[in-house]
Amino acid sequence: MAEVNDILNDINNEKSYHINDSSQDKPKWVPILEGEYFGHITEVTTRLVEWNDKKTGNKLKSRVYNYKVIVAEENSKMQYVKPWDKAEVIDGSDYVGRTIKSVGVFRNIEPNEGDDFHSNPFGNKSYLSFCNAIGVECKEEEKEIDGNKVTVSVLPSLNIDDIEGIPVVAVVKKGKSYNDKNGKQRFYMDVKWVQRWEDGKRKKVQGKNDEIPF
Question: Is the pTM of this model over 0.85?
Fold first, then answer.
């Protein structure tokens, strides 16, 4: 019996403590809202695609640039209002370090002799705007097209190293819809286009995926 009493005494004399470490708590998820975000371009990928234009039916060839924008510290000065609760304002600092995926940008390629795809210079407006946003100069030249002399912007072929880390203001809007685990319709938030961040500084960046909270 003495042994049982010894065991009970040992158990009663055992001490345990718990200190609440807030750093171990799962951070509150903050939804990305429509608006402008200061950040840097990261995770750039590029590929060639061939596709048929829905309006003309012409076969086109394009180089597609996909990228993400990682939100910068300077975004802390921004504020965002929830559209479903205009009384609640989200501070821009809550997004610092988050990455937002872009819809990508197309650079339509001019065909050489013997190519089976068509020219589409009027479809390069978005690419020209992208170049302007990242500070890449596009020179203008006069060319003769279909017997007419026109002024064209000569669009450069960008490499990944030309784009990574460039400071931009990302314009974010609703993208495709999806259903969450409860069957409720939600929307991805995408970078639709970028604008120049005049006093932004280029930096080496390493983005991380911004997971959708299913």
Answer: no
* Segment 66-106, tens digit of pLDDT: 999 999 999 999 999 988 887 789 999 999 999 999 999 99
**Do residues 136 and 157 touch, judged by C-beta distance below 8 A?**
no
How far, in Å, CA of 48 to CA of 50, rounded? 7
Residues 6+ positions from 68 with CB-CB distance below 8 Å: 41, 42, 43, 99, 100, 101, 102, 191, 207
CA 54 to chain centre: 26
Q: Exposed, middle or buried, 144 (CB in 10 Å: 0-12/13-18/19+)? A: exposed
Any idea what DSSP says for residue 156? -
